[in-house]
Amino acid sequence: MKRYSYSRLETYENCPLQFKLRYIDRIKSDTESVEAFMGSRVHESLEKLYRDKLMEKTCSLEDLIDFYHSNWDKNLHEGVIVVREGYSLDNYREIGKRCLESYYHRYFPFDHARTIALEMPIEVPLGVPGIKFVGFIDRLDQREDGTYEIHDYKTSSTLPHQAKIDQDKQLALYQLGIESLWDDVRDVDLVWHYLAFDKELRSKREREKLEMVKKEVISIIHKIETTDSFEPRESPLCGWCGYQDLCPLKKHTFKVSRLPPDAFIKEDGVQLVNRYIEVKNQMKALKQEEEQLKNAIYEYAAREGVNVINGSGYRVRIRVSKKPKYPSISGDRERYSSLVEVLKRAGIWEEVSKLDSNRLVELIEEGRIEEEVVREIKAYEEIVEDKRIFTSRIKGVIEK
Question: Coiled-coil annotation: which residues (predicted)?
Fold first, then answer.
């Protein structure tokens, strides 16, 4: 029986390679982001708060904060990393403390509903053979009116809009899970506590939306089960990934970032890239010089009235002709769009779908466009000079 969870699906959607390394290859990461570490400590503290309440004990704020700090010290390890520059472990420790303090003051004495379960394991009935979808509900409550509340604690530094909350899959899946456990689950509130903002966000799911979420999840699982391609997906989340040393997009950066300056500059890859950029810049400079020389040759040929100019061992031939030019999407957009409509009405847009001026000229010259349409097209035509230089070796001349 293969196990899936919301966090696994989220990992796959964020980066298929990370999903493979973590859940298929089962490679353990040596690092843990400070955000995840702090989030775990806050969750443990809130679990204690409500577990004490279940035992008819009201945990004081002082005891709660002491518990938080004790667990922080007990679980802290060398692999906890701070990605955001300019901040320290202590900064995040204080954020977690503030989250707990604001929550405590907001909800004390924590009796708005009956707590049914804490860190409750839940299985979501997807109806897919061989697949078990599981999760954990941070807190499940039931109000006096019978309404169930699925609570989720978030220590994120970003507060989502209500529209995003209304599209969230995780708690919707957990709703499907609790509906399969008890007959009296008829009304369910989904509740998110964004602790860093002292905000409570709520949402409800209609039956149609729940079924839609279920289908979406089954579709993602099917995609995972039938693919053999788990490509890395670069995003701002990469800085928090514990598999950078195994990722083809980040492996070299991970490697050289740990080298001292003298070893960094001597590393083969660094030297190759530095030389490549050096050559590329030289080519760019030479290309600019080439264009300047071409213009100088055109001016010389026009001034001297010649089409062929000799050098020591080579000669150049200059050809100047007139050619039609039509509006481009990067130029006059209004004229471009107007011409496109003309071509579409004439049924020839597919043949010049990128508005290839050369192809359009060919169609006109071949007589494949009706005269009336040609006249419309000509209204967009601009005659420009087409200057070209052709080089050839002068026979019998030894290059000096």
Answer: 276-303
Q: Point out the domain boundary residue: 75, 110, 145.
A: 110
Q: Does 340 reside within a domain?
A: yes
Q: Answer whether residue 142 is part of any domain.
A: no
Pick from 306, 323, 340: which residue ends a domain?
Answer: 306
Query: What distance lies between CA 233 and its chain's CA centroid?
Result: 7
pLDDT digits (tens, 9 = 90+) for 128-143: 899 999 999 999 999 9
**Token digits for 117?**
């379960």
Give the rounded distance of the alpha carbon of 343 from its chain centre.
Answer: 38
- Contact between 242 and 29 under an 8 Å Cβ cutoff? The reply is yes
Burial class of residue 15 in the structure, from the number of CB atoms within 10 Å of its CB (0-12 exposed, 13-18 middle, 19+ buried): buried
Name the domain count of the chain: 3
Domain that holds residue 367: 308-393
3-class SS at 190?
A: strand
Residue 52 within a domain: yes
- Burial readout 121-143 (b: 16 or more C-beta within 10 A, e: otherwise): ebebebebeebebebbbbbbbbe
Q: Any residues with CB less than 8 A from the CB of 150 and at least 6 apart, and which?
A: 137, 140, 171, 174, 175, 178, 188, 189, 190, 191
Q: Compute φ and ψ for 228, nearest 5 degrees.
A: -120, 15
Q: What is the pLDDT of residue 395?
A: 59
Distance CA 186, CA 5 (A): 24
Give this prediction's pTM.
0.72
